[in-house]
DNA sequence: CGCCGCATTCAAAGCGGTTTGAATTGGATC
DNA sequence: GATCCAATTCAAACCGCTTTGAATGCGGCG
């Protein structure tokens, strides 16, 4: 059942039927009603491909996903983001097209996407400092929104980001206020922009008090449970162990906790843990009451906002050229859990306390 | 730059250019070469929508995802499956279209997908016993592959599944052999086919020895860390606690382990844990050596196989009608970790052992 | 009564490819 | 030299929708 069939059936021209179904004003109300009923009755749906070709709009948004050793899509943070974006697409009648491409072929992938015209816009995931994709997409004229930012890129671009620097500065201050001085930072992969900003916030809090973080307590890597566990075990066995950990993900925090358990240390007493919490659907930080003290910002909400923003940009193409692109900075909230507490005595003035007891 | 432009540029007809680029034999080699070079030079890519309309193939596979309170896509198992399928699609030039729809609207979603013709086939996720989607897709004539099976559906259909019953039967036997009798089963959501089969395997192992599992030790639910933790805490505090847990997911197993730690019990000594392991990219069961004893089957591989199977079906449409649909049953391997050990004495003949010491 | 304007409706031309059936060419055959 | 055939190439139709510009019908007005 296609448009022509339906038109023949109704004794109307395809033009009129098309207009009736698409809400054009020049169709008589009686006709529109008749057409709509017939369409309903015969389960008529316009052919997507034909519609797309005729209108020149793909009605689809592309997500190009790094296909590295550690496929990005299996990253739960990514999955939650996609879930949020998907809600918006579904509501607006857009399709979400996921494309896994080795990270070195991304430029080519974007070019093809553009030339083949099978998406109306793309979301840029996991930007790095100085990320080249932004310039490329500018050049291609393909509408895009970046999830995060790219330090060092001075082109204007639309983005939705969490104020990572501020979140981690506050987190660090919170621990410094509790008397912690040896604070470990388990960060995301080096070069990722969000990791960079978090590190900056971390360092800024120290600097504001004339202190300096210990570089040997700062590591970067994939934010997995294993990362947290291994780092915790390693660092806590050192002569001068940290009294607190800041982790970039709940998964890492859980790993640190496992490390503590194995070493017989109590979380929140002997060692504090403060984590960033993306509010993942499948890995929550407790139910009502948080388990871990955390900087909290919903990545799913970020997904929703990125998608909305992009669809807005697509709907009003002139906006893109006229004014500066829209940007959104989400503030993380600091929620208190049971994983943090005052620094244990031994660490206040290191090597000065009388009782040199092991924990 | 479209086909016509390119043809004009070359002084050829669109017909010849199209054929040259699509590898038809009736084009002179010299011409083909000339055309290919020009296409390369001018970055010509055929317009996706036009191609799809002309060929009647959408070159896209749909994944309709339940959008419940717990959005399925954020389930890491699902994400890994998608990653595997995505590899295959990328290789074959197919797009992957993710569509989030409230579970009660799935039927409508499939109908629309079919009528609008924007996918060539679909993957059915998370089948339930007696799942109605299979009959619907049959009726719609939309090619599909089920990830898993649907007990009680007697229509033929293509599927890729893990032999869940056998895997869990072996797992249960393994624990029974170690002397465990009070074994808890932390299963997936009730009604899910895979959960049903796992329960059947579990029960079968007991039955084969003339034993019966305790229903109060069998729970069903979302397979999260919290599920495992809460169930473990609850059950282990009872008068007659289990000596071993079988969990349907690594996440649940990790939750059980947390419960053990909190109660001061040693994993593999006081209480054994055996889990199913989907080999998730972001949540691994140890590195070289497994932490948990587990029935292991890669869900990512299942994704690859589902995708391949579906693309095969689409490539040879007659196959679908002629013979029985292809099916694949993957066997899980049982890998040994440090989370299992002999049942502690107290449980061999319950209430008979002399020393009634608390653990 | 003729003309105008408004409300509807329609025929036809795209959108950018693929595919059918016919036309052209050049060399081999008789 | 005419005929035939295989190898190439092309014009035109088609996929199913949107959209432009023109046509139609009809009541109101001068």
From TrEMBL, chains A, B:
GO MF annotations in UniProt: DNA-binding transcription factor activity; transcription cis-regulatory region binding
InterPro entries named among the record's database cross-references: HTH_LacI, Lambda_DNA-bd_dom_sf, Peripla_BP/Lac1_sug-bd_dom, Peripla_BP_I
Transmembrane segments annotated in the record for this chain: none
SUPFAM superfamilies, per the entry: lambda repressor-like DNA-binding domains, Periplasmic binding protein-like I
Keyword presence, Heme: no
Alphabetical UniProt keywords: DNA-binding, Transcription, Transcription regulation
Domain of life of the native organism: Bacteria
Residue span(s) of domain HTH lacI-type: 1-55
Pfam (any one): Peripla_BP_1
Cited Gene3D superfamilies: 3.40.50.2300, lambda repressor-like DNA-binding domains (1.10.260.40)
Keyword presence, Repeat: no
PROSITE patterns: HTH_LACI_2
PANTHER family xref list: HTH-TYPE TRANSCRIPTIONAL REGULATOR GALS (PTHR30146:SF109), LACI-RELATED TRANSCRIPTIONAL REPRESSOR (PTHR30146)
Protein's UniProt name: Transcriptional regulator, LacI family
Species of origin: Rhodobacter aestuarii
